[in-house]
Every structure is written in C-alpha cells, then in structure tokens.
Amino acid sequence: MATIERSTPNPRLMKLLNPMVAFLVRRGWGPVSRQLMEIHWTGRTSGREYSTPVSRLDIGNGLFTTTRAPYKHNFAGGAPATVVIDGERVSYVGTLVADPEAVGARMRTMLDALGPKRGPRAFGVTIDGDPTEEELASYAADAGVAVIDFEPA
C-alpha cells in the first residue's frame, strides 16, 4: 500500500515565487519553462482576468494539469484559456475532469510517463511506494484534486 501526502511549499513562498516563475515561463527560459506553463482565464462569476503558473503535463497528444485550487471550477463544462508554453501564447479550451476515478486513472498514466521523481513533483505530492489507480482515486477524492484538460481552440 502506497502513502500519498501533499507536499506543496508554504503559500507565502508561492506568492513570492509565482511572479518569477511566470516570468521565466513567458520567456521560455530553462528547465522551469519545460515543466510548467502559465494559464490565463476569465472568472465565471467575477469576469476578472486571472493567470497562474501550473505544472505542465503533456503526454502523448494531451496537455493537462492537476490542481486542487478553487480556480478549477472555472473550467467546469469547458472554458476558453490562453496557455503560455515555451514562451508562446496559444488559445485552448480547458475542461475540468473532477471524477476521482478518472483523475486517479489519469494520475497513474502520468506517473508511468513521468517517472517516480517528476510525477509526484508535478502533482505536488510525495509518494512512498507505487500507488494503484484506486489509491490515487482515493487521494484525489480526499484532497479535492482534479485534472484540467486543454484542447486547442
């Protein structure tokens, strides 16, 4: 049985680092740019413009990220987004995948593709062992983790 624990930096540290990380991603500089992307979207109820750097998971023909942040709800049913990848701005439609079983299956696929070091880092977790899809689905349900799929607009 694998142990999965949340492993994200202090929110104050993230508030300081996010602008610097976004700067690097927008310019396509270094390894940060290859592992992260910046998403821009409009809030469903506020109508305000938002942006944030997130883990970049591009496996096969799919581009997606995992998140537990409340902004994920803006992508329920699909929503337009601009994604900055390697310094290039591209229009996408982001769609929320919140079903824990689907999220667990996607996380298992990502772990297999990314490997035991990068996979957990991309999810913001530490993993002791090799989790099954069911264990990942249970973690996703407990932690409120969802996937946002991005398809070209």
**Can you give the helix content as a percent range?**
25-40%
Give the termini separation.
41 Å
User: Spans with pLDDT under 50 lasting ≥5 residues?
Assistant: none
Shape: globular
Q: Biggest sheet, in brief?
A: 7 strands, antiparallel
Q: How do the strands line up in the largest sheet?
A: 3-2-6-7-9-5-4
**Mean of residue pLDDT values:** 92
Number of helices: 4
The percent range for strand residues is 35-45%
Order of helices and strands: EHHEEEEEEHEHE
Characteristics:
153 residues; alpha+beta; 7-stranded antiparallel sheet; two-stranded antiparallel ribbon; 4 helices; 9 strands; globular
Reconstruct the topology from this structure:
Elements (H helix, E strand, L loop, with lengths): L2 E4 L4 H17 L2 H6 E7 L6 E7 L1 E3 L2 E6 L11 E7 L2 E10 L2 H24 L1 E4 L4 H11 L2 E7 L1
Antiparallel strand pairs: 1-8, 2-3, 2-6, 4-5, 5-9, 6-7, 7-9
Helix pairs in contact: 3-4
Could you explain the architecture of this structure?
There is one protein chain. The protein is 38% helix and 36% strand. The protein is built from four helices and nine strands. A seven-stranded antiparallel sheet has the order 3-2-6-7-9-5-4. Strand 6 and strand 7 form a beta hairpin. Helix 3 (100-123) crosses helix 4 (133-143).
Provide a brief overview of the structure.
It contains four helices and nine strands; from the N terminus they run βααββββββαβαβ. With 153 residues, the protein is of the alpha+beta class. A hairpin with a 2-residue loop joins strand 4 (57-59) and strand 5 (62-67).
